[in-house]
Amino acid sequence: MTWESFLPVAIVLSSMIPGLIIFWIPEKQSQWRTGVNLLGAVVKLVFIAIVMAGVWRGDTEYEARLSLLPDLDLVLRADGLGLLFVVLSGTLWLVTTIYAIGYLEHSHSRSRFFAFFSLCVSATMGIALAGNLFTFLIFYELLTICTYPLVIHNGTDEAMGGGRTYLAYTLTGGVALLVGVVWLSVIAGPVEFTDGGALGHVEGHVTALTVIFALFMIGTGVKAAIFPMHGWLPRAMVAPAPVSALLHAVAVVKAGAFGVSRIVIDVYGVDLAQSLNLLLPLLIAACTTVIVGSVLAVFQDDLKRRLAYSTVSQVSYVVMGVAIFGPIGAAGGLLHLVHQGVMKITLFFGAGAFAETLGVKKVSQMNGIGSRMPWTMAAFTVGALGMIGVPPVAGFISKWYLGTGAIAADVDWVVLVLLGSSLLNAIYFLPILYRAWFLPQIDEWPHEEPGPANWMLVAPPVVTAVAALLLGVFASADFSLLSWVELIIEREYMP
Amino acid sequence: MILESEIWLALVVLLPLAGAILTFMAPRYAPQIGTVSGVIVFGAVVALTLAVVESDATRLTVGGWGAPLGIDLVADGLSTLMLLMTAVVGLAITAYAVGYFGESSAHKRAYFWPLWLFLWASMNALFLSGDVFNLYVTLELLSLAAVALTALVGQPAAVQAAMRYMLVGLAGSLMYLMGVAFLYAEIGVLDIMALASVSEATPPVFVSAALITAGLMMKTALFPLHFWLPPAHANAAAPVSALLSALVVKGSFYILLRLWLTVFAPLGDTFAPYVLSALGIGAIIWGSIQALRQPSIKLLVAYSTVAQLGYLFLLIPLLMDDGADRQAVLSGIVYFMIAHAMAKSAAFLSAGNILHALGNDRITSIIGMSRKMPLTITAFALAGISLVALPPSAGFIAKWLLLNEAIDGGQWLLVVVIIAGGLLAAGYVMRVVGPAFRQVADDQLAVANPVVPASMAWSALGLAILAIVLGFTGVYLLDVLDIGVVILTGGEA
Amino acid sequence: MIDLDTGTFYMLVGTVLFGIGFYGLIAYPHLLRKILAMNIMGIGVFMIFIAAAYGSGEGDPDPVPHALVITGIVVAVCATGLALSLAVQVQALTGSPKLDADKE
């Protein structure tokens, strides 16, 4: 095994091996657990940095291959699009791990929790680095399996119910994906992800390709929570806050949105997808989800549920960007893949910290919380403003690209959707900010923990909020996220 | 080298037989002798596999007598894989039994070991038999050992289940033998390849195929002839349940597969393969629904076997279709047999652990047990992943192969059934895994400190891990399957 | 009167015996009857083998089926023995010579 083929494997293994070790660490040995966990997270970032440098230069192929069946390989390959997701998840994993250690200080079964958490991240890395549909499918299902124990971590009736719903949705989606992948490989042979599309050699099969595309969109759409397949996401909110962060920002929902991008861009290719008339239905589904998710969010009093519906809406921006035929819209979508992750994780960190420190779980209980937990609430505010699209927070940049992309692709009505959804975002976020900063506290906090808030709960949201600001402010700098996305678009759309 | 590989053919039958006799004569040392025999037999099967891989399919004419009166042992890729599957599961069950029967009465221990090794010997002989009459004898020996093992627990339910198993098994083997008699009357030979070279789609051959297939269906518990399986598999001792479900039913299915690929190949374009496929569909649906309704884990796992056996029959029409890639279909079916053997034995052994530690195997008793018996619950969950066919697992690879051929052959109904079966399996696996993850206070657990001997916990987990690992070894296993397996077409006969 | 040669006659009788045995196996709940029925089925099969050995009646009979029948009888005796001992156990444990599901 060469160094170049070792690296993508190492990125996956740097969380899988710690995960498998953590299963065996006794419950009370929290130092060991933390040490193994953080060591894995840091090592992973080092590997990621090395691979990124190579891909940026464009002179090295990072690829590992293992034959599972004749004509069927497990392929891990680092390319621009995959690394975008890898960097997002790898970084947020480190932050989330620190947060989770603080959050779960007194929880049961922490070894089990952190082990599965690490395995989830490995599965996500596999999804990001998958070099063909088969590999993607394997890690996609692995992610489903590893997330289940996290969703039901509390072990209550409600948690079990949420877990059942989660499995019912995701396994059904997985089945659709499986049939699609097998069917496509029957028609087209093994499908490797290729810049500009992998189906150039397939002639005819128009109906089959259309049905397979629909199966793919169901399969990935369930995880991406595209309306009407979003039902599991609010119910999965019973899980502890770090899991919500994982579901919404680091792994699951992102894996779905990433899958949509992969399939449109690297399997079908935008040109083929456009000529088969597949993009418009996808765009309509995405826009519907954006509006429906936002409308539903307005009516939630439970803070985490409001954020969950907000995710339903925001993740579809990614799908929207890919479905807009043209490079600018796609750039907006891919930017939002990262931006939404960073902003939404900030919001969930905040919500978790409110619940853990003060017992505040509802929007109506948040009056005056800004003066009690100023740092956390400040971070929360940055995230919320970013979601609305207020400059200079990162969210503005992605919405800007989506809008100009839509006009360039002659689908002007999408701009109306963007404006409408931003208005709705404002309707469900601004009252929270107003209550927190400008209204006085009404009552005692429901469950106030004595003493100052745990720094492990405060630092992570502040860090991610700062990141969301920096991503917006320095968007046009060299080596920024935007320039990375432009690199991807250049290679994918103009091969 | 040729000589050596022939020796191994005889040894994989003789060694477990010798072990059976020794454990019977020295019951006091049965666990020790049994363990050593298990390891030796496993080693012999590995040696045979290496020999076959090295020097192609081999045949041993026992005692130099030759056909028609002598016994010929034949090892090709298919029989080698079956032997290997049996050896791996067998070794794990041996390890498990040491712990399981360690505390039970001397009586059970004294009978388990000889019967188990005897069963292993007949199983190996069955996979190596080259003629249809020896297949009958080995099949019958296999049944007798299996029935006796089922009755071993001695409880009324188990003895009754064993009795029913006995009756169905005997009826099945007599039907098989009747078919052989017709075949002999028509063609006049017994050797499978000699039969295949002259067999044609004549009425007597069809009648014989019908009798043989019906008899083997009874023994394989294909829906709707599965009624005897759940009580027998659920009431037997855990290691026995595991070997009945994982191995014994595969013995009769192996014969079915072998004969349809050769002797009955000329009947490939009749309606018969479609009947088998339709019954397979029935098995998957009915078995899964029943598994969703059972109150106890062992019954649930037993009905899962009824369902999973359906998959073996599902693609028989494609296996017999000259237009399809028949080698690929066979690969899918064989991979499924192997995957199921690992996952199902792991599931039954885990269920046995639960029964052992909690005193019963009701689903309500395992609430909150994931904290208390993590190895066992992990084993069950991993086995479940393979049964549901989620990646990465052997079950996934098997289902991938089946699905590929079903789609390639345009059999959309089968695609739907394969998919629906997977989702139903997820449903019944979660009925066990879900409650185990529930969080309850210690005083609400069925048993506060359940104890499972290490050898039992680890052998279940070992098989479960194998069910996952075999998801990565497809290339090697299918290479073995390519060795000398004869697939005849109707026209060639 | 249909003209039957000896071989065909034995084959028919064997088939009928097999059928009678199979009917008995299914129809009678008493275990001893079931076991006897099974033996009748077996005898039916053996007669077919004998008929196959006779062939067309010309030349020497084929010795192979005789060897098969002898082996078959040995197996049948073993199986009957095990079946009988199980039936005794069922009677001893449940007080009835019938299986639970077959009782009225």
Topology, element by element:
The complex is a heterotrimer of chains A (495), B (493) and C (104).
Chain A: H1 3-22, H2 30-57, E1 62-69, E2 72-78, H3 80-103, H4 110-129, H5 133-151, H6 157-188, H7 206-223, H8 232-235, H9 241-250, H10 252-268, H11 270-275, H12 279-298, H13 303-323, H14 327-358, H15 369-372, H16 374-388, H17 394-408, H18 413-438, H19 455-473, H20 481-493
Antiparallel strand pairs in A: 1-2
Helix pairs in contact in A: 1-2, 1-4, 2-3, 3-4, 3-9, 3-14, 3-19, 4-5, 5-6, 5-10, 6-7, 7-10, 9-10, 9-14, 10-13, 12-13, 12-18, 13-14, 14-16, 14-17, 14-19, 14-20, 16-18, 16-19, 17-18, 17-19
Chain B: H1 2-25, H2 30-55, E1 58-61, E2 72-75, H3 77-100, H4 106-128, H5 132-150, H6 156-187, H7 192-198, H8 203-220, H9 229-235, H10 238-261, H11 272-293, H12 297-314, H13 316-319, H14 326-358, H15 374-388, H16 394-408, H17 412-437, H18 454-469, H19 474-481
Antiparallel strand pairs in B: 1-2
Helix pairs in contact in B: 1-2, 1-4, 2-3, 2-4, 3-4, 3-10, 3-14, 3-18, 3-19, 4-5, 4-10, 5-6, 5-10, 6-8, 6-9, 8-10, 9-10, 9-12, 10-14, 11-12, 11-17, 12-14, 12-17, 14-15, 14-16, 14-18, 15-17, 15-18, 16-17
Chain C: H1 6-27, H2 31-54, H3 64-94
Helix pairs in contact in C: 1-2, 2-3
Explain what the structure shows.
The complex is a heterotrimer of chains A (495), B (493) and C (104). Chain A is mainly alpha-helical and 495 residues long. Chain A has helices at residues 3-22, 30-57, 80-103, 110-129, 133-151, 157-188, 206-223, 232-235, 241-250, 252-268, 270-275, 279-298, 303-323, 327-358, 369-372, 374-388, 394-408, 413-438, 455-473, 481-493, and strands at residues 62-69, 72-78. A two-stranded antiparallel sheet of chain A has the order 1-2. In chain A, a hairpin with a 2-residue loop joins strand 1 (62-69) and strand 2. In chain A, helix 1 runs antiparallel to helix 4, helix 5 packs antiparallel against helix 6 (157-188) and helix 7 (206-223) runs antiparallel to helix 10. The two termini of chain A are 29 Å apart. The model of chain A has no long low-confidence stretch (mean pLDDT 89). Chain B has one domain (2-481). Chain B has helices spanning 2-25, 30-55, 77-100, 106-128, 132-150, 156-187, 192-198, 203-220, 229-235, 238-261, 272-293, 297-314, 316-319, 326-358, 374-388, 394-408, 412-437, 454-469, 474-481; strands spanning 58-61, 72-75. Chain B has a two-stranded antiparallel ribbon. Chain B is globular, with a radius of gyration of 21 Å. Chain B starts with a helix and ends in a 12-residue tail after the last helix. In chain B, 67% of the residues are buried. Chain C contains three helices and no strands. Chain C starts with 5 loop residues before the first helix and ends in a 10-residue tail after the last helix. Chain C has a single domain (6-96), classed as Helix Hairpins. In chain C, helix 1 (6-27) packs antiparallel against helix 2. Chain B binds chain C through residues 68-69, 133, 136-137, 140-141, 144, 147-148, 151, 155-156, 159-160, 162-164, 166-167, 170-171, 174, 177-178, 181-182, 184-185, 188, 190, and chain C through 11, 14, 18, 21-22, 25, 31, 34, 38, 41-42, 44-45, 48-49, 51-52, 62-65, 67-68, 71-72, 75, 78-79, 82-83, 86-87, 89-90, 93-94, 99-101.
